[in-house]
Amino acid sequence: MEYRRMGRSGLQLSVLSFGSWVSFHQQIHDNTADELMGVAYDNGINFFDNAEGYARGESERMMGRVLKGKNWERSCYVLSSKVFFGSRENNRPNQHGLSRKHIVEACHEALGRLQTDYLDIYFCHRPDPSVPIEEVVWTMHHLIAQGKVLYWGTSMWSAAEIMEAHRVAQQYNLIGPVVEQPQYNMFERYKMEMDYLPVFRNVGLGTTIWSPLAAGFLTGKYLNGLPEGSRLSMDEYGWLRDRWLQEEKIGKLRKLKTLADNMGVALPSLAIAWTISNPNTTTAILGATRKEQLIQNLEALSVLPKLTDDWKQQIENILTNKPEMNLA
Amino acid sequence: MEYRRMGRSGLQLSVLSFGSWVSFHQQIHDNTADELMGVAYDNGINFFDNAEGYARGESERMMGRVLKGKNWERSCYVLSSKVFFGSRENNRPNQHGLSRKHIVEACHEALGRLQTDYLDIYFCHRPDPSVPIEEVVWTMHHLIAQGKVLYWGTSMWSAAEIMEAHRVAQQYNLIGPVVEQPQYNMFERYKMEMDYLPVFRNVGLGTTIWSPLAAGFLTGKYLNGLPEGSRLSMDEYGWLRDRWLQEEKIGKLRKLKTLADNMGVALPSLAIAWTISNPNTTTAILGATRKEQLIQNLEALSVLPKLTDDWKQQIENILTNKPEMNLA
Amino acid sequence: MEYRRMGRSGLQLSVLSFGSWVSFHQQIHDNTADELMGVAYDNGINFFDNAEGYARGESERMMGRVLKGKNWERSCYVLSSKVFFGSRENNRPNQHGLSRKHIVEACHEALGRLQTDYLDIYFCHRPDPSVPIEEVVWTMHHLIAQGKVLYWGTSMWSAAEIMEAHRVAQQYNLIGPVVEQPQYNMFERYKMEMDYLPVFRNVGLGTTIWSPLAAGFLTGKYLNGLPEGSRLSMDEYGWLRDRWLQEEKIGKLRKLKTLADNMGVALPSLAIAWTISNPNTTTAILGATRKEQLIQNLEALSVLPKLTDDWKQQIENILTNKPEMNLA
Amino acid sequence: MEYRRMGRSGLQLSVLSFGSWVSFHQQIHDNTADELMGVAYDNGINFFDNAEGYARGESERMMGRVLKGKNWERSCYVLSSKVFFGSRENNRPNQHGLSRKHIVEACHEALGRLQTDYLDIYFCHRPDPSVPIEEVVWTMHHLIAQGKVLYWGTSMWSAAEIMEAHRVAQQYNLIGPVVEQPQYNMFERYKMEMDYLPVFRNVGLGTTIWSPLAAGFLTGKYLNGLPEGSRLSMDEYGWLRDRWLQEEKIGKLRKLKTLADNMGVALPSLAIAWTISNPNTTTAILGATRKEQLIQNLEALSVLPKLTDDWKQQIENILTNKPEMNLA
Question: Pfam families of this UniProt entry (chains A, B, C, D) (predicted)?
Answer without folding.
Answer: Aldo_ket_red (PF00248)
